[in-house]
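>> Question from a student workshop board

For tomorrow's exercise we were told to take the sequence and the ligand below, predict the bound structure, and bring the output to class. My setup keeps failing. Could a helper post the expected result so I can at least see what it should look like? The ligand is FE2/S2 (inorganic) cluster.
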Amino acid sequence: MSEISNGQMKHVEINGEEIVIVNLDGKICAFADRCGHMNARLSRGNISKNIVTCPLHAAKFDVTSGKKIAEPVMEPSPGLEPLPPKWQKYMESAGQEAHYIKTYDQETYEVKVVGDTIKIRA
Ligand code: FES
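>> Workshop helper replied:
Here is what the output should look like for this input. Compare the format with yours to find the bug.
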């Protein structure tokens, strides 16, 4: 408990599973660290209250339930320099395929706090 301050996330690996532990005002939640979209580490994203935002395409998940609450954003940022023509073709093709990728809810884990120790059933 002392390693995770309020509003912080911590990446851990248990039996080969990558898990994020979150401290929400003393309530501890645990969920799968790999994003249900394209596998980015959610623990490297941002958390605001009970919502984590993926660092790669900004999908949002409720950390208490694992439910997806916002789809990924797959548009380039306005103001980016144009890519060379070969890269533009590649990005158009990749972008078309990306629309077929589904984003799944995150698996959550049962958590029990005993003193300063967090136990997770993985
Ligand atoms: S990998 Fe997380 S939103 Fe794309």
